[in-house]
Amino acid sequence: MSRIRGKDTGPELAVRKALWALRLRYRVHPAIAGRPDIVFAGARVAVFIDGCFWHGCALHGVKPKSNREFWRTKFRKNQSRDRKVTRLLEADGWAVLRYWEHDVKDDPLKVTSQIAKSVRARTRRRYQAKDSAPLSGR
Ligand SMILES: [Zn+2]
Which end of the chain is more exposed for a tag (fewer CB within 10 A), N or C? Predict the structure, then answer.
């Protein structure tokens, strides 16, 4: 799969730093569907920070003047790939959080705390499920 996101972009780094400061540990761009930007394997939370240009954000997606058709097709393909990746991951039990680059730039703390909340809630649920599982069986 070709990479359509810039690696380690500013907004992404800002969120990662903040999550690290909250003592949440994650992996970056692991080899699962769509290579999410930030992944919490234990909680099964995958985070994407989509660049406004490549993913065709309605607010900042620049519409290049030349090769209009080429770009239109390209953005549409990227968007349908994004949706497909989300569906694949969700079908596999992941919670998928998608943010626009501009969401992160506007309010990195809000994005970070939403991610942290989701990770913590899902980590708790997993431990509870494990505790209440019967001892026999697998
Ligand atoms: Zn945008």
Answer: C
- Residues within 5 Å of ion ligand 1 by Cβ? 52, 57, 59-60, 100, 102
Give the pLDDT of residue 131: 59
pTM for this structure?
0.82
Residues 6+ apart with CB under 8 A from 25: 40
How far are the Cα atoms of 36, 38, 41, 67 from residue 44, in angstroms, in the given order? Answer: 12, 11, 5, 40
d(CA 87, CA 94): 9
Residue 42 Cα to ligand 1 midpoint, Å, equals 30
| Residue 54 CA to ligand 1 centre (angstroms) | 10
Q: Residue holding tokens 């501009």?
A: 102
Q: What is the pLDDT of residue 66?
A: 83
**Residues 6 or more apart in contact with residue 18 via CB below 8 angstroms:** 108, 109, 112
Which pLDDT belongs to residue 127? 66
